[in-house]
Design goal:
The protein has about 280 residues and is an alpha/beta fold. Helices cover about 40% and strands about 15% of the residues. The protein is built from eleven helices and ten strands. Helix 1 crosses helix 11 and helix 4 packs parallel to helix 5.
Length: about 280
């Protein structure tokens, strides 16, 4: 249940990759092709492409994922949030322009700001992931504040579960998921219980400190319910000596393959995801 984050930082590209929008596309496309047989999702982060004026390359990358690896979920990490017609346009950007299967959404303008994403996602047979308890240390500044006897993130989680249950239509999961960081294992345990119809997207694995044992609580006993994200540990594996050992500069994608398999092994060993191998 590994989701590979695609965050193309030119400063960290292998020497054989051009530091340009075209290079970003080449870099990400090679990662996609190397890891697609092993992963459940790819998550391109729109800011890395927009900062390089590479939105056209992001469109091509999304098209490549849809056409060449249609069984792998495409999550556009955009963290959009707005009201009314503007939210409609952000939803169209994700599902129509980029053809995403899901998009990350910021709920802090209120639950009505999520409705346009839910509506269009239902029309496109797609989904959304709502920020609930994010992986950064500063998330506690607002998300942990108390209101009416519950934390803000608990209020958001309750709204997410309502949307998820409404869109599940009798299935185990709905079209609305949650983002909960791997850096908060206790909260993952708690939120898995309070959001039974919700897929949880779990960033913060690896470089941000999250370990396989920390994300165990995000899964249901059948191994489903969570998509664990790794970006830097996988896509820049050529900079990890233990993954790059014995490889030439042109073989950097082999280091990516090794890092991907290593993370999957760790998830299989320390979380219910291991039952999916049987």
């Amino acid at each position: 249940m590994l989701c590979v984050g695609l965050d193309p930082d030119p400063a960290r590209f292998p020497d054989s990759i051009e530091r340009s929008p075209v290079g970003a596309l080449d870099f990400c496309r090679r990662i996609v092709d190397a890891t697609a047989p092993f992963v459940c999702a790819f998550k391109p982060q729109i800011a890395y492409f927009a900062a390089m004026r590479a939105e056209t390359e992001l469109e091509k990358l999304c098209e490549h994922i849809r056409d060449e690896h249609p069984d792998v979920v495409l999550v556009l990490d955009a963290k959009r949030g707005d009201i009314g017609p503007t939210a409609d346009r952000y939803a169209s950007e994700a599902f129509d322009r980029y053809g995403a299967d899901a998009v990350t959404v910021n709920p802090y303008l209120g639950l009505d700001s999520i409705e346009p994403f839910v509506t269009l996602a239902a029309e496109r047979n797609a989904g959304i992931f709502v920020l609930v308890k994010t992986s950064n240390p500063g998330s506690k500044d607002f998300q942990d504040l108390q209101a009416d006897g519950r934390t803000i993130y608990q209020h958001v989680a309750a709204g997410v579960e309502q949307f998820a249950a409404r869109t599940a239509a009798g299935d185990a999961y709905g079209a609305v998921g949650a983002v909960v960081g791997a850096t908060w294992p206790r909260q993952l345990d708690e939120l898995r219980d309070t959001m039974p119809h919700t897929w949880i997207l779990v960033p913060g694995f690896g470089k941000q400190g999250g370990r396989a044992a920390d994300v165990r609580g995000a899964f249901h006993p059948d191994g489903l319910g969570a998509l664990v994200v790794s970006a830097r540990d996988v896509i820049f594996a050529h900079a990890r000596p233990e993954m790059n050992a014995g490889l030439s500069n042109s073989q950097w994608h082999t280091a990516v393959d090794r890092a991907c398999r290593d993370m999957i092994d760790r998830l299989a060993a320390d979380t219910p995801a291991g039952v999916l191998r049987k």
